[in-house]
Amino acid sequence: MANTLTNMQSRIFADAAIRKFNDILMPLAAISTSFESEAKHRGDTVRVPVFPTLTASAFSGDYSASDKTITGVDVSIDQHYFSSVAITDRERDESLADYFTNLGQQEAKAVAKQILTGVMSTITAAAFGNNAGDKLVVASSAFTAESIADLRGKAVKKGIPAGDAAIVLGPDYYVALLKDTTLNAGALGSPQAVQDGKIARLFGFNNIFECNFVPGNSENLVGFVCSRQALATAIRYLAPQSTAGLADAGMVSDNESGLTLGVRVIPHPLAGKVHYVTECLWGHKALDGAALVRILSA
Q1: Blockwise average pLDDT, block size 10, the chain, 298 residues
Q2: What domains lie within the chain, and their CATH numbers?
Q3: DSSP assignment of the chain, as one string?
Q4: Does pTM surpass 0.85?
């Protein structure tokens, strides 16, 4: 974990924030992403690598006949989200030792929620189709392991290999799977679902994520299965133009995922307050309409 802040409270706050930020944004592993710690400005364009769907061709004397170029897609990081809490001098003196840890986690959750709902707001019939093969309509009460098998069939027919895809489910649907008696520890080959509430693999899908922020999009969306070609998102650090007047400023990033948050500590002496802020720049784009199947409640 990289942390460029200098104040001890700031570092504790930032470290807790990036861990929570990384955990909540785990469903973004289902799509094409670009996460780096380099600073950018709002409106800058980031190149997100996207691997195209490849096909094989009969050789006809030229190996470049069916070339696909892995160049990616340009995503404008035109959205700036932040979360801020003002701490009074008295609140700081009366706070428990883990105050800054809890504060960092809550602020990161608020920012991550906005990013997830923003990315998933593009998952609509207009972008990804509304034919029978483009969606699975099922109530949460009827959502079982058999539904995942049905979902696999629709995904494969759209050209989405299960091994390269990920499933993202709203909590009611994820819990319905956990309750499915066919998915006990013996059937899964490990006690992970019972002990940790995690479904690691199912019917060839290697990634099944629970997400509490799936937006309905006025279309009863409750989840989806997709390959990385479906959506793209980029997240970057917004550096302050000047640190004058700031008690601390910098960024914290997760070494493995590359996810980065900016942190500013802004004192307000006359009011006896200090504002702790987390922020980032980000943008997203819908890509291949054939690379996603929506799950709808009705």
Answers
A1: 90 96 94 94 93 68 62 91 92 79 96 97 97 97 94 95 93 90 61 66 88 96 96 96 95 95 95 95 96 97
A2: 2-50+73-121+231-286 (3.30.2400), 126-229+289-296 (3.30.2320.10)
A3: -EE---SHHHHHHHHHHHHHHHHHTGGGGGSEEEEEEEE--TT-EEEE--PPPP------S-TTTT------EEEE--EEEEEEEEEEHHHHHH--TTHHHHHHHHHHHHHHHHHHHHHHTT-SHHHH--SGGGEEE--GGG--HHHHHHHHHHHHHTT--GGG-EEEE-HHHHHHHHH-GGGSHHHHTSSHHHHH-----BTTBSEEEE-TT---TTTTEEEEEE-TTSEEEEEEE---S--TT-SEEEEEE-TTT--EEEEEEEEEGGGTEEEEEEEEEEEEEE--GGGEEEEE--
A4: yes
